[in-house]
Amino acid sequence: MKYSGFQTTLCHLCFLSLVFAACKKPVNPCIPLLQQRDSALIQRADSLMLRRNEMTLVPYRTALEQLRAEEKQLFAEVDNCDFGKDLQAWNYWYRGRLKFPSKIEQELQRLERDSAGK
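^ that's the sequence the OP posted. Answer follows.
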């Protein structure tokens, strides 16, 4: 049984792709987990804010405060995560999410201003 040039080339390409995959640095597992949790938190906050007209003030504020507590916990875990050389993830958190007030925090501040103005 003879090997053709095509089969040999295919084997070499497969081998090189395996070597490349093995040499690639692994992603820190906390990075995608934090992103998933953040996306879910933002989605829950958006859903709550869309339904604010259907709720009275006290349950709405309580739900926002619970989301804000979860957000603070998430931000504390971000501080403990090693981003390594993942500059994109680091920028998302430190030049975006942690730098500016979140939607949840802004909504709580708006409620405080509105209740203080009455």
